[in-house]
Amino acid sequence: MNPPPAMDMPIMHDSDRYDFVRDIGSGNFGVARLMRDKHTKELVAVKYIERGDKIDENVKREIINHRSLRHPNIVRFKEVILTPTHLAIVMEYASGGEMFDRISRAGRFTEDEARFFFQQLISGVSYCHSMQVCHRDLKLENTLLDGDPALHLKICDFGYSKSSVLHSQPKSTVGTPAYIAPEVLLKQEYDGKVADVWSCGVTLYVMLVGSYPFEDPDNPKDFRKTIQRVLSVQYSVPDFVQISPECREVISRIFVFDPAERITIPEILKNEWFLKNLPADLVNEKLTDNQFEEPDQPMQSMDTIMQIISEATVPAAGSYLDQFMPDNDTDDDMDDMDSDYELDVDSSGEIVYAI
């Protein structure tokens, strides 16, 4: 039996407007594809999520939170489209790729290079927090670079984000083990904004050192030991890494077990080391006040988006779904679970049971 049509909304297929260029990623959600707008010739990234059960509250929250964010250091949300088989989320395409790949090629960054990207990361996170959104999965793989020679960092993937406006106080263990704050691992009810600061600190450390701060250097794939080292805040900066005392002080103020004692985003924004060589565009945009001139607005109203999401909960008909998308069984992130089981980590580094 075919699913009933939407009451007031025609089914829109991406091929009506976008041409396929190539696949650019995959995960449990499905695939991400590079597409080209037939009319404007603009390249966009499109994330496809299978219609039906996968269109849950997390997907709705991701779309609502991402749509609300209009900042130069956040990948731009454009629209959602309903296809016969998938909900498609259309976003800005960051052609420079992942920060993770850039660091992998470079080995590590100089202190000035790391600060340049950290300034942009903190700018974007500060804006998210001013909009009452905490990301909860900040990591190098979720930070992209645009194709501009000036190298603008772009935060992406708001699948684990929470909004206090939506009354969704974080208390579940989500994220990626190497980046997770102690209070998240302990499954306390926590302030997502303060936990985001910890993840920003891990990102800064990796840019400077080229490895994760809480991995055992002798056995980096021992994820249980990584978690133990996070909980005991056991890390060091290798002797071969030459960084200033001021930089070390920022890292030490981020990696603090007690979230109440951890440095905050507003404090980072006023820190002397952070402010050194601050890019002109961040100075001009009044960084500390989160005043950014982003005149364009999302092309769809919230009512239209909610109607499309509602229709997307209706599964695709017949076997057409199997013909449309390849199987994808891998995902590097942790499931958002609220069970009371003990912490368990599988060989991929995923936490498969939350504390």
From TrEMBL:
Keyword Cytoplasm belongs to the record: no
GO cellular component: nucleus
GO molecular function: ATP binding; protein serine/threonine kinase activity
Reaction(s) catalysed (UniProt annotation): L-threonyl-[protein] + ATP = O-phospho-L-threonyl-[protein] + ADP + H(+); L-seryl-[protein] + ATP = O-phospho-L-seryl-[protein] + ADP + H(+)
UniProt-listed Enzyme Commission number(s): 2.7.11.1
N-terminal signal peptide: none
Binding positions (ATP): K47
Alphabetical GO biological process terms: abscisic acid-activated signaling pathway; response to salt stress; response to water deprivation
Protein kinase domain location: 18-274
Keyword list, A-Z: ATP-binding, Kinase, Nucleotide-binding, Serine/threonine-protein kinase, Transferase
Domain of life, per lineage: Eukaryota
Family affiliation: Belongs to the protein kinase superfamily.
Protein name: non-specific serine/threonine protein kinase
Organism the protein comes from: Medicago truncatula
Chain's gene name: 11413484
